[in-house]
Specification:
Elements (H helix, E strand, L loop, with lengths): L3 H22 L4 H4 L4 H21 L2 H17 L4 H21 L5 H31 L2 H9 L5 H22 L14 H7 L6 H26 L3 H31 L16 H15 L3 E8 L2 H8 L1 H18 L5 E6 L2 E6 L4 H17 L2 E3 L2 E3 L3 E8 L7 H17 L5 E6 L1
Parallel strand pairs: 6-7
Antiparallel strand pairs: 1-3, 1-6, 2-3, 4-5
Helix pairs in contact: 1-3, 1-5, 3-4, 4-6, 5-6, 6-8, 6-11, 7-8, 8-10, 10-11, 11-12, 13-14, 14-15
């Protein structure tokens, strides 16, 4: 007659055999199983699971945890998604527990609770392996991001950001090593936080948003340090992802803030007060790079006054200048504070709308068009009106599109709007 351990190992082997058949029939795993001897793989995996289970039953916690971390690292390196990996463990656990309930001559309640803890340990310490690989690959991501996006002329801010990134990297080192943590986690003691608290800006809501992100980053740091101390790695993986995402959002916001501060000092069009082509490419590149990092599309649109030559010929250039100034004000009132407007040349204007959707982009351009159509300009007791044709391009690309290509497409769509009867909006997409 089999004893309890023999029964459990028999169940474990049988469950793995059936479970392995499920895995190899799953289309997701096909790409990982090409040119592999499945029989040898099944035997090797079964032996590994039995080995891990025996370590658990023997109470060899240190060796078991070490082996599980290696297993997590291996799956991360070959590209198995962490959520899917955990889901796979959950599925195996469910089948295993069902088989225990079917077993005869065993204390079901005792076995159930003994073995459910085994799967908790598997999930937790394979998560630790995934986490170590994530950190190894992503540790210097934010540092490289700053190096690539912040020019040398912002040296003082750059040094301060590097010190903040070093703080983050020290925390990441703590997560994968046994060293003691020596950094201060409180946001009120952070050099960058103190700098933000003392910043003076025309739009205080931008600074308030950055302070909120900064505090959130420090609060997440407290959480992940606590989870590491408690060895709750399954939860720690999610908090680590929040930490990196919030860090990226914060740095992106800092960069956007620095750009906006610099832009305010640059030359503007003397007639309309709008930005000129001189700064267009620099701003476009920053918005495009942030779009690629966040996955959020952005829009670029050409706006051209219809029949502007006729206005100049009939009423003179001073009236034409009034029309240009009026249009610039209408566009400004129709856009968000985070959007950019440029006097591109003559009667042509260009707008860049970050973080938008196709529906929102089209709605914004239609708002500009209808607001222009409703406007009247008084000239010597008479009222004149004017319209605009707009061509917009929504960019949904994971690679950087040259500004020249985007402008060419927006210009083409704008002329298409003119040929279609003027006073129209036509949008397209680049992906």
């Amino acid at each position: 007659m089999q004893n309890k351990d023999e029964i459990l190992l028999s169940i474990l082997k049988r469950v793995h055999q059936n479970f392995f058949k499920e895995i190899v029939s799953n289309p997701y795993f096909h790409k990982y199983l090409r040119d592999i001897d499945l029989n040898r793989l099944e035997i090797r995996q079964r032996k590994k699971i039995v080995y891990l289970y025996n370590l658990y039953r023997a109470g060899n916690k240190e060796k078991l945890n070490e082996e599980l971390k290696k297993l997590g690292k291996l799956h991360e390196k070959i590209g198995i998604d962490f959520a899917l990996f955990v889901e796979t463990i959950n599925r195996f656990e469910l089948i295993f527990m069902k088989e225990i309930f079917k077993a005869k001559n065993v204390e079901i309640d005792k076995l159930f609770f003994e073995n459910i803890l085994f799967f908790d340990v598997v999930r937790n310490y394979t998560a630790a392996g995934y986490l170590q690989e994530y950190i190894k690959r992503e540790k210097y991501f934010l540092r490289n991001f700053i190096e690539a996006n912040l020019q040398q002329k912002f040296l003082d801010i750059k040094k301060m950001l590097y010190r903040h990134i070093q703080w983050k990297e020290n925390i990441l080192d703590y997560l994968i090593n046994e060293n003691n943590l020596t950094v201060d986690l409180a946001p009120v003691n952070c050099e960058l936080g103190i700098w933000l608290e003392n910043v003076r800006n025309d739009n205080p809501k931008i600074v308030e948003g950055l302070i909120k992100l900064h505090d959130e980053l420090h609060n997440i740091a407290v959480s992940i340090v606590s989870l590491k101390k408690e060895e709750k790695y399954l939860l720690l993986v999610n908090e680590y992802n929040n930490f990196m995402k919030t860090g990226l959002l914060f740095l992106s916001g800092i960069l956007a803030f620095i750009i906006s501060e610099e832009v305010s000092k640059l030359q503007r069009d003397p007639l309309t007060g709008l930005l000129t082509r001189r700064v267009l490419e620099e701003i476009y590149l920053k918005i495009a790079e942030l779009s690629i990092l966040t996955g959020e599309p952005f829009g670029v649109a050409f706006i051209d006054i219809d029949n502007f030559k006729r206005i100049n010929d009939m009423y003179g250039h001073p009236v034409g200048d009034k029309v240009l100034k009026k249009l610039s004000k209408i566009i400004q009132k129709s856009l968000r504070k985070s959007d950019y407007i440029f006097r591109y040349g003559g009667e042509e204007f260009l707008v860049i709308i970050p973080a938008t959707t196709e529906k929102s982009f089209e709605k914004t351009l239609e708002k500009i068009r209808t607001n222009v159509q409703k406007e009247k300009i008084k000239i010597n007791g008479d009222e004149i009106s004017f319209t605009v044709s707009i061509g917009g391009v929504l960019i949904k690309s994971s690679i950087l599109k040259p500004l020249s290509e985007v402008i060419k497409e927006a210009d083409r769509l704008m002329y298409k709007a003119k040929k279609s009867g003027k006073n129209r909006v036509i949008i397209g997409e680049l992906s």
